[in-house]
Q: What sequence folds into this?
């Protein structure tokens, strides 16, 4: 059984650019959640996708958007990058919205 | 949103010692997990424990849902237990993390 995978591992972007991060959910999981973890802090919930629909959103601006595909993999898109967007981005998959979450290894984004 | 308070923020232990980490929630949650974050950032699942008590080797956890707190016990600590421990919980479609407990186990 394949676990949660994320790509790319590391990414460097310039302020104002756009970025797309990808997440493949664990086999059989229909829910993907995305988190942002700044250095020295706990992860912050960005949003959750359940069966291809956004199912909940944290306190993040609209320039953070996402998609979930029929195979339940997911993308996180961030437009108009700011320096404060530099962080570790984590995705997690689960069997449903209120089930145990399993995390991928993360994508480390640096905005210069 | 729900506030999650973890204590202590930092903990230094001698190898072989026992410890208790605590997590308080500002409101009821129906979905609660404990994680260990390794130095590369990977969150490792320790327990899924919305209520009750579970044990896995030297680790155990107890959640008292009616009082909105959870405890993680580490017995006979080893240097490999070092790292940051997070609790997280939520209701429905949101999930809130605490700020973590940074554990250092010295030989």
A:
């Amino acid at each position: 059984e394949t676990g949660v995978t994320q790509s790319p591992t590391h990414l460097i972007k310039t302020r104002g650019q756009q970025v797309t991060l990808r997440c493949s959910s664990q086999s059989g999981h229909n829910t993907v959640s995305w988190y942002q973890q700044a250095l020295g802090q706990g992860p912050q919930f960005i949003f959750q996708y359940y069966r291809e629909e956004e199912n909940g959103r944290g306190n993040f601006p609209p320039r953070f958007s996402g998609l979930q595909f029929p195979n339940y993999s997911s993308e996180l898109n961030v437009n108009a990058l700011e320096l404060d967007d530099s962080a570790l981005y984590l995705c997690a998959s689960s069997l449903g919205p209120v089930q145990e979450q399993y995390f991928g290894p993360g994508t480390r984004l640096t905005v210069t | 949103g729900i506030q999650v308070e973890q204590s202590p923020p930092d903990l230094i232990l001698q190898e072989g010692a026992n410890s208790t980490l605590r997590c308080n929630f500002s409101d009821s949650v129906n979905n609660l997990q404990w994680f260990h974050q390794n130095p590369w950032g990977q969150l490792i699942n320790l327990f899924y424990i919305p209520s009750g008590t579970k044990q896995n080797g030297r680790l155990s956890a107890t959640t008292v849902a009616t009082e909105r707190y959870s405890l993680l016990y580490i017995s006979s600590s080893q240097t490999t237990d070092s790292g940051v421990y997070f609790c997280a919980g939520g209701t429905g479609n949101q999930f809130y993390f605490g700020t973590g407990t940074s554990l250092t186990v010295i030989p």
